[in-house]
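Researcher: Please predict.
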Amino acid sequence: MNRNFQRIFAGGVAAVVFGLLAAGCAPDSDMSRDSANIRNVGDADFGQQVIKSDVPVVVDFYATWCGPCKRLAPMMEELAAGAGAKVKFVKVDIDRSPELARKYEIEGVPTVMMFKAGTNVSKTVGLVPREVLKEKIDTLTLPNANP
């Protein structure tokens, strides 16, 4: 009976792993690469790239294993391309930068935070509609406005 349980358990584990892979929840090394419009930052350069930035910054806190993060990535690319030089876009892998995740109280991914003059002015958790992010980004670029 013990062998039957082991076979059933192993088969169940294999089915779950396959299901996760098919659902797009497998780690994706491409997410951790810089793109033309979005730069990966971490503990060492977050202050320079975000806090000391002369322009507002949109920060995407993500994880390579996160399915909603993978769905958000192309949306962020599109928004970054449309923003031009008015807004900087960066992303932070929470698994590679756990100190930043703790400091900014990241409790779920994706989390998008917006910084203006070094101050966090907006935070959304989870996969939100493109229009919501676009509106917040547009507001971010207005003088003396917080999204």
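Model: The beta strands are 38-40, 57-62, 88-93, 111-116, 119-125.
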